[in-house]
């Protein structure tokens, strides 16, 4: 169950759709394949099979877990570099510990979000803390990569720690849906995330049998990824279930409905809504680097090998290995 929840009765409410509002149609629905990341923690590759041009300004997204680890099983990522984009780690349940070569760091836990601007270059690590490795426990989150336009590729690295209590909460008009607004403006409510590229990130919980019409910036694209549960999306009520991504067309709002008979762990439909203003620039990627040209990728690799993206600090956080 998501760590951040609330009684929708007392929350600000979305407005009802206007007469001329256009409900965004479903262009495609794809199913995320399973894989592993870092030291071997399970993920679903949410954007697999979708063109970068349709994802723009997003590049990559993994659903991490949900998995209930036994003692000694939790895993993370070792120190690694990034350049040219922003990483967003949203911990729905569980704990990750972060440190980077630019001085950022801390615990990301139970509804918190870590927003790291890699920009010109950075090294970082994300790993479960020692006590979690020893005892095991629930781990469920999202890692999202947000592209930076060419003019911002070499911006200085930066770090935002958005605690769970900073997330802005809102409800549908009938109270059947809870919105956690992490970034961007939705229905007059603005999330705490500060972004170089204009985007919206919303975690939506829809009660069984409920429907919500989420107002969405018409200049943004729109993606709906199902974290858990079963329901429908769009004006034609296209069926969708956990591990699937809906790419939506143009319009003013996104409609999501939960099945009346839930099959999810929470008893509700859990959805991550994403959208942003497309950058519309050529993208070249190589592992942890997102640039505009192959020459820039080659330079990123050279700079990393020469230590120009940063160095691992003395006494740095390291993955805990159980005895």
Automatic annotation (TrEMBL):
Pfam families: Pirin, Pirin_C. GO terms for molecular function: metal ion binding. Residues 16-40 are annotated as: Disordered. Residues 201-309 form the Pirin C-terminal domain. The keyword Transit peptide does not apply. Fe cation binds at residues 80, 82, 124, 126. Signal peptide: none annotated. Binds 1 Fe cation per subunit. Its cofactor is Fe cation. Keywords: Iron, Metal-binding. Residues 42-146 form the Pirin N-terminal domain. Gene3D superfamilies: Jelly Rolls. Belongs to the pirin family. This is Pirin-like protein.
């Amino acid at each position: 169950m998501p760590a951040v929840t609330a009684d929708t009765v007392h929350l600000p409410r979305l407005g009802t759709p206007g007469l001329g509002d256009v409900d965004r149609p479903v262009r495609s629905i794809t199913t995320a394949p399973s894989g592993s990341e870092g030291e071997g923690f399970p993920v679903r590759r949410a954007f697999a099979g979708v063109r970068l041009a349709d994802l723009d300004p997003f590049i990559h997204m993994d659903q991490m877990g949900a998995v209930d680890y036994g003692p000694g099983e939790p895993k993370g990522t070792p120190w690694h570099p990034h350049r040219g984009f922003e990483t967003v780690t949203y911990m729905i349940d569980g704990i990750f510990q972060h440190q980077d070569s630019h001085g950022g760091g801390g615990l990301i836990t139970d509804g918190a979000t870590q927003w790291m601007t890699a920009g010109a270059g950075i090294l970082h690590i994300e790993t479960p803390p020692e006590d979690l490795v020893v005892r095991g426990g629930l781990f469920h989150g999202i890692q999202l990569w947000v592209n930076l336009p060419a003019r911002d590729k070499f911006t200085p690295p930066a770090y935002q720690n958005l605690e769970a209590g900073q997330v802005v909460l809102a409800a549908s008009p009938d109270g059947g849906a809870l919105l956690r607004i992490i970034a961007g403006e939705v229905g007059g409510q603005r999330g705490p995330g500060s972004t170089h590229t204009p985007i919206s990130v919303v975690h939506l919980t829809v009660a069984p049998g409920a429907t919500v019409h989420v107002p969405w910036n018409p200049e943004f694209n729109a993606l709906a990824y199902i974290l858990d549960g079963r329901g429908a999306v769009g004006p034609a009520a296209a069926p969708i279930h956990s591990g699937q991504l809906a790419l939506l067309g143009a319009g003013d709002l996104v409609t999501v409905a939960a099945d009346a008979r839930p099959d999810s762990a929470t008893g509700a439909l859990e959805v991550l809504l994403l959208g942003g203003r497309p950058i519309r620039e050529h993208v070249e990627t190589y592992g942890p680097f997102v640039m505009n040209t192959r020459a820039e990728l080659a330079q990123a690799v050279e700079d990393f090998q020469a230590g120009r993206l940063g160095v691992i600090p003395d006494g740095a956080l390291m993955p805990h290995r159980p005895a």
